[in-house]
């Protein structure tokens, strides 16, 4: 079997992205099962150590539209594409459906991305995206949704296509993301052992609501001076958060995105992971934190309502205004058990998720 994974990812560039983690880890998992895998991304030709073929369709990408233009040119000049084409944004499959309509295509929906497009780029871009979304969903042979609410959103939006939808969560690498000695993890990042560490990992964009987390932690720190927020990521809000970190160094630290290997250590160094997103597909970092034995305090997004059980592996909030109360409770009142947190995400380990995706490939290839 040959699988072509399509996504604007660069294996040599470390960014806080659930889609990047999904695509590159799925590629490795498929390769380990003797599947021929090609990732169609961007950037320089990947290093030889990766176990799959990486084909950059362009060297640089500044926006989703630039990647789409480069991808369209790549599809037109490709002499022959074989196997399954697995896209991770609806618009990225449009060139394949137009130029090679006989290909077997699969689409993974990592949440209701159209909402982000409207918020970031306005109604005109949102309309164009919606047309591409409809076109791709109508032509894809199967559609994978990473969470129950994503599945509900799209089956309601496209009821006549519901037979094509599957709910398969994004996986977590249970070998990489595991419980590690906290003292050793903290020493790796020079985090004092007496601090209570709240972690935020993700794109510093409005939909992730990082400023709400900062505000609530700074308010909490007035009562609890050992509470410290460490944020990992980059984005449009990074300059604002960086300025705040410089003015409140005892309460807030901002780190650049890091490789997955380092992120696994960082999540083990934290006491609690905070998720404040308004909309999410999964979110991936939450299940990675739980796999590391770190509880989660977050909004009711993605798969979290099915995973997070109050008092066992974290707390869910109805609105960001409740974050402060539950962050304090999680840090100072609970005696969390790392193995309980980890056990809550075993069902979404890649060892279980990959066979489910392979079955989708087989179904559409039959």
Question: What would you say this structure looks like, in words?
Answer:
The chain is of the alpha/beta class and 366 residues long. The chain has two domains: 2-171 and 349-365, Rossmann fold; 182-348, Rossmann fold. It is built from 15 helices and 13 strands. Strands 3-2-1-4-5-6-7 form a seven-stranded parallel β-sheet, with helices on both faces. Strand 4 (84-87), helix 3 (94-99) and strand 5 form a beta-alpha-beta unit. The longest helix is centred in the middle third of the chain and has 17 residues, at 123-139.
Topology:
Layout: E1 2-6, H1 18-32, E2 36-41, E3 53-56, H2 64-77, E4 84-87, H3 94-99, E5 104-109, H4 113-121, H5 123-139, E6 142-145, H6 148-157, E7 165-167, H7 182-188, E8 196-201, H8 210-223, E9 227-232, H9 238-247, E10 252-255, H10 260-269, E11 272-275, H11 284-291, E12 296-299, H12 304-307, E13 314-317, H13 323-332, H14 338-343, H15 350-365
Parallel strand pairs: 1-2, 1-4, 2-3, 4-5, 5-6, 6-7, 8-9, 8-11, 9-10, 11-12, 12-13
Helix pairs in contact: 1-15, 4-5, 7-10, 8-13
Low-confidence stretches: none
CATH architectural designation of the largest domain: 3-Layer(aba) Sandwich
Domain count: the total is 2
Average pLDDT confidence is 94
Tell me roughly what share of residues is in helical segments.
40-55%
N-to-C order of helices and strands: EHEEHEHEHHEHEHEHEHEHEHEHEHHH
The shape is globular
> End-to-end span in angstroms?
12 Å
CATH topology of the largest domain: Rossmann fold
Q: What characterizes the major β-sheet?
A: 7 strands, parallel
The radius of gyration is 20 Å
Strand-residue proportion: 15-25%
What is the number of E strands?
Answer: 13
Classified in CATH, the superfamily of the largest domain is Glycogen Phosphorylase B
Which structural class is indicated by helix and strand composition?
alpha/beta
Number of helices: 15
